[in-house]
Design a protein that fits this description.
The chain has helices at residues 2-13, 49-69, 83-99, 120-130, 133-143, 173-180, 208-228, 280-301, 309-325, 328-331; strands spanning 22-29, 41-46, 103-109, 147-152, 155-156, 160-161, 191-195, 198-205, 239-243, 254-255, 258-259, 262-263, 265-268, 271-274. With 335 residues, the chain is of the alpha+beta class. The strands form four sheets. Strands 1, 2, 4, 5 and 6 form a five-stranded mixed β-sheet that branches. Strands 7-8-3-9-12 form a five-stranded mixed β-sheet. A two-stranded antiparallel sheet has the order 10-11. The longest helix is centred in the last third of the chain and has 22 residues, at 280-301. The radius of gyration is 23 Å and the shape is globular.
Length: 335
């Protein structure tokens, strides 16, 4: 009852309490890494529980407006929009390309620190334009004057202000990023698929040069959009793939003045898509991953384990089976 009164007062005043905006970052050492190196640690942001409860209230009020804001190609963190359904959209386009013996020039973009580089003023500008005015004031209070402290081995650092990014560990973090990137440029001559920051853009045509030309035009528009909203794409980690049964590759694509590396396959949402969609690389990768995990857990599920068969089956279904069955509806009939 007291929380209801408190939350209603915060919504009425459009105020997010300062005490709920303090994040404590706990540093977890990665396995096998040197303790002296900063990159050896994985930062985990912990936020006050009461603040997360209030974020859930805000999220429930945001949801009815999201369908009118978010584009159809954005599947990230949305109900009834699974990763496998997004991949199915891509493979359907690729399969049609192969069946009609055309060229599909595709770019898989790597966005650098996507969630941590969100420009606060730009995000508030879009919230003000896309959502009812009451959301603008509460989200302005939510984003302003946020601080964090780092804790390592019972030693806590001083407080530092957070000047960009959507808060790590918060419930609203994914939704705010989706709102911030909802206006990414689209083109009627290309196909775009996004899942949060995982972005794939494709162009299909009988002529390889025209296919890349249409794709390059769209990539240039996206590049300009990213510069406007202070989003950075890493062209060296992005991938350009030509999907076709014909010989030769599509002409190269450039981003930020540099050529995107061409590859025979790309990994998107956990699945490897190769040039002719044979799934060989994906199956090999999953078999290797499954073998490694099986060796790690053999002491627990092997013949000398004292666990009963029911417990071993539960471990298999919860840990091992998802490794090789993910996306099986797409690659299960491959030879």
């Amino acid at each position: 009852m007291f929380l209801v009164i408190l939350f209603n007062a915060c919504l009425r005043l459009c105020h997010y309490p300062t005490q709920w905006k303090l994040a404590q970052v706990v540093m977890i050492l990665k396995p096998g890494k040197q303790i002296e190196e900063v990159s050896s640690y994985r930062p985990i942001s912990l936020l006050p529980l009461i603040g997360k409860l209030f974020e859930r209230v805000i999220l429930n009020r945001l949801r009815p407006h999201l369908d009118t804001i978010l584009p159809e190609h954005q599947f990230g963190f949305r109900q009834k929009h699974a990763t496998i359904e997004q991949i199915h959209r891509l493979t359907d386009t690729i399969s049609h390309t192969l069946e009609t013996k055309k060229y599909c020039s595709a770019v898989f973009l790597d966005i650098s620190q996507a969630f941590d580089r969100v420009w606060h003023d730009g995000l508030l500008f879009k919230i003000k334009n896309y959502l009812p005015h009451s959301f603008y004031f509460i989200m302005k209070s939510y984003l302003s004057e946020r601080c964090f402290e780092v804790k390592l081995n019972n030693i806590t650092s001083d407080l530092y202000k957070i000047r960009s990014g959507v808060p790590q560990g918060s419930i609203l973090r994914p939704v705010l990023y989706l709102i911030f990137t909802a206006d990414i440029p689209t083109d009627n001559k290309t196909f775009i698929a996004t899942y949060a920051d995982d972005t794939a853009i494709m162009s299909v045509h009988e002529n390889a040069a025209i296919s890349s030309s249409n794709l390059q035009k769209h990539i240039t528009e996206v590049e300009q959009w990213m510069k406007t909203w202070r989003i950075k794409a890493n062209q060296s980690k992005s991938a350009h793939v030509t999907f076709t049964l014909r010989k030769g590759d599509c002409p190269p694509i450039t981003l930020n003045g540099e050529q995107i590396p061409h590859s025979d396959a790309a990994k998107y949402l956990g699945m490897h898509l190769d040039r002719r969609l044979t799934w060989k690389k994906h199956i090999w990768s999953k078999a290797k991953c499954l073998g490694t995990k099986l060796r790690e857990m053999y002491w627990l599920i092997g013949g000398k384990s004292q666990l009963n068969n029911e417990s071993k089956m539960a471990i298999y279904k919860s840990i091992l089976k998802p490794i090789w069955t993910y996306g099986i509806e797409l690659w299960g009939d491959s030879k």
